[in-house]
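USER: I would love a firmer grasp of how sequence relates to backbone shape in proteins. This is the protein in question:
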Amino acid sequence: MSYGIPSAEPSATIPVCPRHPDRPSYVRCQRCGRPACPECQRAAAVGFQCVDCVNEQKRTTPSYRSPYGGALATGRPLVTFTIIGLCVLVYILQWIVPGDAVFQNFAFANYAAASEPWRMLTAAFLHSQGFLLHIVLNMYTLWIFGQALEPLLGRIRFLAVYLLSAIGGSVGYLLLTPTFPVVGVVGASGAIFGLFGAMLVVQRHRGGETKQLWILIAINGAIGFFVPSIAWQAHLGGLITGALAAAAIAYAPRGKNQALLQAGGLILVAGLLAVVAWFRITAG
């Protein structure tokens, strides 16, 4: 004869998880007081909360937005740091990849605009190997302006402005260079000038002082006309593109359709760049 030991069954006196009635639980939610099994427990500031209370809090907690409707970018400017990291990584690759392959495949040149248009963007992540200050100054300026603009615009909008400005710099070079030289151009300067233009628009929109910014733009712009190795065309193209992109964000009417209008404005800026590039390519 064998004697079995009866299994422990949840009873009326044993608290059980509401979501899993077959599981006894002696841990209670700090918010609603109901039992919660390990699967339904979520760590809180004090003790645990059940998954239902956590979800309810997410639904009822208001989402804070940046002044121009983007998700509030608190803490470190992640997009800015990511772009800087990518530029540094690519710069290292330029040194270690043999045969100057990185430059040859990703630098922008007017002749490649039609067949390899992605170079208009990738060139902004490359820098001159013969002039260390090229990447140092660009990354320092990006760090300064990124910390100011990214929280204001929101991360996605800031990234859109930066990338459009990078392309705009290449389009400016394509449009304003009288011939189609085979020499490649590289550098984030067009995108940096785009941040200059964006900051100018944002400052004007917010009623801030812009005199020092104008001086900064004038000094950096003038350098491009006196130093032969600097493409002032890319600076001008980036500056105009950044200003247009920022205007599409800053001047979109507030309301439930603000994000849609901003996206539409940025698409129009991208379309304008495409039209200008196509016109220049077909005109020869």
